[in-house]
Design goal:
mainly alpha; about 180 residues
């Protein structure tokens, strides 16, 4: 019987803590939404996007409850698979790897969405700049560069974790 790897144990505990916090926060967001924002006026405001709103933002506002429930489901699934990873259950390892791949895809999609949102905002700020407001162009460039750096860093980290969990020595820990 080989010794369980410290890598799996450390990754499992880190993600138990992070996904535990994420699950608690998601539960609180869903409770808040269900109790505070269930008025007809709020529902009408969420269905009617502001003129010039980017398509992704319109979708988010139109389906806010579904988005909150999806974040809760993913956080809870990550928590369960992290606990299963710690217990060396193979289904949890495969689910965890799938969630890491999903996280990499989300990093890429997030950068695309952010640039889409920024292009809309940049046009609004450019129109306002003609009225004497400061030029926000350099700010948007800096935020864009930082966003790409973060996406590449976390995408690389999640890819490395997934690849390491799929490696033969780690997979052998999860065999029955």
């Amino acid at each position: 019987m080989q010794q369980p790897s410290k890598f799996v144990t450390v990754v499992a505990w880190i993600f138990i803590v992070l996904s535990g916090f994420g699950t608690v926060i998601s539960v609180l967001q869903n409770v808040m939404f269900q109790t505070m924002f269930r008025t007809p006026e709020f529902a009408d405001a969420m269905q009617a996007p502001a003129p010039g709103m980017p398509p992704f933002a319109s979708f988010m506002f139109g389906h806010f409850q579904v988005v909150l429930l999806a974040f809760l489901a993913v956080s809870a699934l990550m928590l369960l698979s992290s606990i299963g990873l710690l217990r060396r259950w193979n289904w949890a390892r495969l689910t965890f790897v799938g969630l890491m791949v999903l996280a990499v895809a989300w990093q890429i999609v997030g950068v695309v969405i952010q640039f889409s949102m920024f292009s809309s905002m940049r046009q609004q700020f450019a129109a306002a700049a003609t009225q004497g407001t400061p030029d926000m162009g350099p700010f948007f460039v800096a935020i864009g560069v930082i966003s790409v750096i973060f996406a590449l860093t976390f995408g690389g980290l999640f890819s490395w974790i997934a690849a390491k969990l799929m490696s033969a020595p780690i997979a052998a820990e999860f065999r029955r």
